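Q: Convert this sequence to C-alpha cells.
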Amino acid sequence: MKNGAWRLDRLLSYTLVNILSALPQAAAADTDTDTDIAADFVQYYQRAYAQGRDLIPGPIPPLDTSSIATRLDLQTIRPQSALTGTGFVALDGTIVKLAGAQGCLSTEAVEFTGLRTTCAMVSLAGMTATLNEAEVGAGNAFPCHVFGNAPGTPTVHYAECFFVGDGGVQSLSETLISRGLAFAARDGAGRPVFPEYAKAEEQARRDKAGIWANAYFVHPYGAHYRADLSTN
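A:
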C-alpha cells in the first residue's frame, strides 16, 4: 500500500473510532453553555445520520448546476464540523450540503479498514477526516460556489467547495467520491448532477475503494447494489 493511502486509512480509522465512542457519550450529556449547545447541534445531526437519517433537506426545486461553469461566484466558508456524509456546519452557523455528492445512509454492516461498522458511519467518518485533511491546504477557509439556499433556519447552502491538495485544486465532492466515501449525486431521472463525478464513482468501484471494498451494501440510487468485485 502506498504511504498516502496508508495514512488516509489510518486517519479514517482513527476518526471512525472517535465518532463511534463520542456519540453515546453525547446522548447522555446535559449541557447548556454556548460551546456545549454548538456541540449538541453537531451531534444531533451526526446521531441521526448514524441511524440512517439525513436531517439536511435536499434542494427544492432542483438546482441549476450550470452556473458553476457560466458564472462562477466563490464565497469563503469556514467549516466547523461534519454533520453528515456530505454536509458540514460552518463557523457562522450556516450549513453547507455538497451538491455533487450523496453520502451512504445504509445502516447495514460493512467492513472498513479492518473495523466492523455501517455504511452510514463510513460516510460520516470520511467527511470528517476529509474536511480535516482539506483544511490544511485550505487554511480553514474553503472557496465554495453556492447554487442555492433552503428557506428556514438554519440557513442551508447547496454548494461545491474546493481546496488545494496534491499540487492542484480539488473538489471536496469529487475527493469523497473517488475515495469511495460517497457517491455521485443524481437528479430525479437518475442522471448524475456532474457527469465527471459519475466517472470518479465508477473508478472507485473498479479500485474497490472505501465502501466499494464490500461485496454488498445499500447504494443510495439502487435497492440493493452489488459491487462487481471481479472488475479490475
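Residues 171 and 219 are 22 Å apart (CA to CA).
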